[in-house]
Specification:
Distance between the termini: 37 Å
Largest sheet: 7 strands, mixed
CATH superfamily: Aconitase, domain 4
Number of strands: 7
Strand content: 15-25%
Strand order of the largest sheet: 4-3-2-1-5-6-7
Shape: globular
CATH class: Alpha Beta
Order of helices and strands: EHHEHEHEHEEEHHH
Number of helices: 8
CATH topology: Aconitase, domain 4
Structural class: alpha/beta
Number of domains: 1
Oligomer: single chain
């Protein structure tokens, strides 16, 4: 898993509440188990017209936002069925951070397991970020996981955030469950050896 420490990217505002996992990555695209190749299907029902052409009105199809890497949405982001493909699709598109006032629990946990930082920020701050990024397609945010701080280029928005310290450690060091196990390989081996001696 790629480490996450400092991250600066253009903001993609999607001012909707209850964005569910089926909207993030429709079920019809969940036929593979690889983690890559899902970016083109991210928000497919909103991004594409019935004939497969791009929906020009959707934010990800507009100049400036196509290259964005921080998605900002409304309350209860990631609700609906549990599917690890949702953070896979976001990551594959190039999004490493999602900001919302609240997240569905399963999606929130899946993000950490897949190197994606879900940030809970106050509603008024999220509203201000959405407003500024809607007005300016080149609106950037900077996220520093080490100092637990978010700010924009002009520092009109600057806010701290809370995060579980274990999850912070895993993201900064790029550790998923397998990486975490390998990090403790010496201790595991010592334990196994002690059992063999008995």
């Amino acid at each position: 898993m790629k480490p996450f420490n400092q991250y600066s990217r253009t903001v993609i505002p999607i001012d909707r509440v209850n964005i569910d996992t089926d909207q993030i990555i429709p079920a019809v695209y969940l036929k593979r188990i690889e983690r890559d190749g899902y970016g083109e299907f991210l928000f497919a029902r909103w991004r594409y017209n019935e004939d497969g052409s791009e929906n020009e009105d959707f934010i990800l199809n507009q100049d400036g936002y196509r290259e964005g890497g921080i998605l900002v949405g409304g309350n209860n982001f990631g609700c609906g069925s549990s599917r690890e493909h949702a953070p896979w699709a976001l990551n594959d598109f190039g999004i490493r951070c999602v900001i919302a006032p609240s997240f569905a629990d399963i999606f929130y946990n899946n993000c950490f397991q897949n190197g994606l930082l879900p940030l809970k920020l106050p509603e008024d701050v999220v509203a201000k970020i959405i407003e500024k990024s809607t007005e300016n397609p080149n609106f950037n945010l900077h996220v520093d996981l080490e100092s637990q701080r978010v700010w924009d280029d002009e520092e009109e928005i600057t806010v701290g955030f809370d995060i579980d310290q274990f999850r912070k450690h895993c993201l900064i060091n790029g550790l998923d469950d397998i990486g975490l196990t390998l990090e403790n390989e010496k201790h595991i081996q010592a334990y196994e050896n002690s059992k063999l001696d008995n």
